[in-house]
């Protein structure tokens, strides 16, 4: 078993309220990602679960038992940090074996565990090398193997891939998901990288200024963001938000445009709204009735695709397009909108108004 339940966590450092009622329910065996920008309280949440931070309020239950007052060592949790130094004089094998030696496991148990971990992380051929003879990525794998060789109740991981270059990070994401599946262990994983979160997690908690904004599957968080902040933080390029209000069967933009009013919103006429449009739900290549007229503002080629910035009044729409798209700034463009996939938010509270009827 490896359930982790953190309820109502509050923690202040002087005047900074790092955690303001954080509640997370991590199911056994899940890959649970805590996602948020720098300073959101992710590390503090992890440290609170590990027992390394004294809480002002709140509780931590592990496997259903209240562990709030337990010392870190009594919680049976493994912390994996961004920087985990290897012992420089020891071989990779000895480094991986060290947590088991500390627990006085037998040599045969240790050999079996190191073999399993090194095969999972594809580092069998590196076991006799010392850290100085390994590349950065290989060291990271050895360090991960050392962290994962134990069987704690859950692994708490604080941005463990941050120091890797992009290619290796992408590879390690796939590796970690595979390792998670084969270990069947509970992972609580902290990151500020939304691609990392969406690609690895089965549950995501989005954190901002010490408050949980939304908890859901990656698809739920992306497709049905609870508020405009989550909509803006998750997704690349960021969602475009256009000021508007409903008027009869139309949505009327502050910049003068109109679109058919989506069937799925119950927002009353006149209420200040924000229409959220993701780049992939917009197109400059077709023309249908639901379209916005604007001017080409800029083109951002990204290799496999291109993002076209279209200026509608004073607002910019980000539109995903084919890599071959070309154009001249100032050129008039019609942007087709897939309104069934759009989002509406209350302009004052930022809360989503998109759920009804969808
Ligand atoms: N020991 C401390 N003393 C004072 N302030 C702290 C301490 N630890 C954290 N904080 C503050 O609490 C807030 C939350 O910090 P935390 O490290 O949990 O954020 P984070 O989401 O992990 O950020 P990052 O992604 O940058 O690591 C920040 O404003 C931080 O400056």
UniProtKB/TrEMBL annotation:
The keyword Cell membrane applies. SMART domains: AAA (SM00382). SUPFAM superfamilies: MOP-like (SSF50331), P-loop containing nucleoside triphosphate hydrolases (SSF52540). Gene3D superfamilies: 2.40.50.100, Nucleic acid-binding proteins, P-loop containing nucleotide triphosphate hydrolases. Pfam families: ABC_tran, TOBE_2. The keyword Nucleotide-binding applies. It comes from the Bacteria. Residues 4-234 form the ABC transporter domain. Keywords: ATP-binding, Cell membrane, Membrane, Nucleotide-binding, Translocase, Transport. InterPro entries: AAA+_ATPase (IPR003593), ABC_transporter-like_ATP-bd (IPR003439), ABC_transporter-like_CS (IPR017871), ABC_transpr_MalK/UgpC-like (IPR047641), Mo/tungstate-bd_C_term_dom (IPR008995), NA-bd_OB-fold (IPR012340), P-loop_NTPase (IPR027417), Transp-assoc_OB_typ2 (IPR013611). This is ABC transporter permease. The lineage of its organism: Bacteria, Bacillati, Actinomycetota, Actinomycetes, Micromonosporales.
